[in-house]
Amino acid sequence: MSAEIFGKQTTIELRKKHIGPSCKILFSNDPVKIVQAKGQFMYDETGQRYLDCINNVAHVGHCHPEVVRAGQQQMEQLNTNSRFLHDKLVLYAQRLQATLPEKLSVCYFVNSGSEANDLALRLARQYRGHRDIITLENAYHGHVSSLIDISPYKFHQLSDAEQNPFVHVAPSPDVYRGKYRADHPDPATAYAHEVKDIIERVDRKGGKIAAFIAESLQSCGGQVIPPVGYFQQVAAHVHKAGGVFIADEVQVGFGRVGTHFWAFQLQGEDFVPDIVTMGKPIGNGHPMSCVVTTKEVAEAFMSSGMQYFNTFGGNPVSCAIGLAVLDVISKEDLQGNALRVGKYLTSRLEKQKEKHPLIGDIRGCGLFVGVELVKDRVKLIPATAEAQEVIYRLKKQLVLLSADGPHRNVLKLKPPMCFTTEDVDLVVDKIDQILTELEDALGLKFQNTENESSKRKQMVDEIGLKCRSDLVNTKGNNQAVLGQKTKRVKT
């Protein structure tokens, strides 16, 4: 393809020479060289087309023409920092706020999810002057120093690193393999009490909680969906201690869960975070992100006397691109598509679970789905090597998928939102074939799963209702929030 500058081997050699060795590449044994992308597809230097099941960054589809055009047109007209007055900044802030609960009304525009979460910590610590942060097991919030400190997914990899004494780790609210599982009478309350216990321990030592931070749905932690009611109870404990609740929507926001525009809304209408951070999908690959908070938190931040500005955050080009992304989500009914296609995806995967002993759990909402592979459904022995084998075999069959979680045994599906049922069939059929071959080679036989508790099924059904409510209501909500028609448009 004409987009290729160097031959593949030259590109590999130059990368080794000039790019930091800790900057890892996907499929490092035989990396894919991508030179072009469109919609849910990526193309290598030979013109070979790959189905992209990885990219939750190209939210509305790779190189979407309306998004590209919006950026080009604005760049031809004006691009400057937000210390000058320009309409695109306030217009985008207004449109974005309309998707959120009313009390979340103040925006700070920055350039990445990491920068957004770093600023969120500053806001939280300034609010009451408290310092301690509660994070979750296996959480990942970004790559800057302040966020590595609150990302066990990262700092647990550092054998000689000391944990920041102001950071406290609560158990991940994982009802599949966590401390309190689906057979527990009330896992939401049990996990929330763990946070309450941390708050009390911190208080006894003279500390004060500034914030509890959580991804609304844990991604790197293995596609974990918190039990309904957990966030409400945690927020009550944190607020009583004078802290704030930060919802990290960097990976799961902007309609990906299908029933709602924001994943934290899966917990119910009675839950509203104090700070929401967003990134990745906000600009469809353009470096843009945002922190949205309440007037009270914003005023406390201003009271420090330190002026805040960000050279590139909220520039006219970024805001034009952000507006185009919101337009496309609405015009192409991508939130509704995430619900419909996501429902089809989970239903097909559930049928595979009935067939394949390697599949221990299927969990997800909309186009955010995890398939946890285990060697034993009772002991939950992680099938890590098998998960890696699946993604490498899929890559050879022109499907790009990743595996994550603390044991790297969870297949992650978080594709562009223009994913179709035909794409689902392609991926699931290939997974079916690969798992069949692996199970035959391993001599794995299907175990009797009658021991799987009815309580777990009930909980899965409850979460499923949150993730699969009425399509008509979803479409109506999209229209009201984004102010656009919901006609499906091909990209």
Task: List descriptors.
491 residues, alpha/beta, seven-stranded mixed β-sheet, five-stranded antiparallel β-sheet, 16 strands, globular, disordered C terminus
Largest sheet: 7 strands, mixed
Rg, rounded, reads 22 Å
Instruction: Tell me the helix content.
Output: 25-40%
Oligomer: single chain
Taken as a percent bin, the fraction of beta residues is: 15-25%
Poorly predicted sequence stretches spanning 5 or more consecutive residues: 468-481, 483-491
Number of helices: 15
Structure description:
This protein is 40% helix and 15% strand. The strands form three sheets. Strands 4-10-9-8-7-5-6 form a seven-stranded mixed β-sheet, with helices on both faces. Strands 11, 12, 13, 15 and 16 form a five-stranded antiparallel β-sheet that branches. A four-stranded mixed β-sheet has the order 1-2-3-14. The chain has 15 helices and 16 strands. With 491 residues, the chain is of the alpha/beta class. Mean pLDDT is 91; it is low at 468-481 and 483-491. Helix 3 (87-97) runs parallel beside helix 10 (316-331), helix 4 packs across helix 9 (295-302) and helix 7 runs parallel beside helix 8 (230-240). It has helices at 8-18, 65-77, 87-97, 113-128, 145-148, 152-155, 187-204, 230-240, 295-302, 316-331, 334-355, 384-396, 421-442, 454-467, 471-482; strands spanning 34-38, 41-44, 49-52, 106-110, 132-136, 167-170, 209-215, 244-248, 275-278, 289-293, 359-365, 368-376, 381-382, 399-400, 402-404, 410-413.
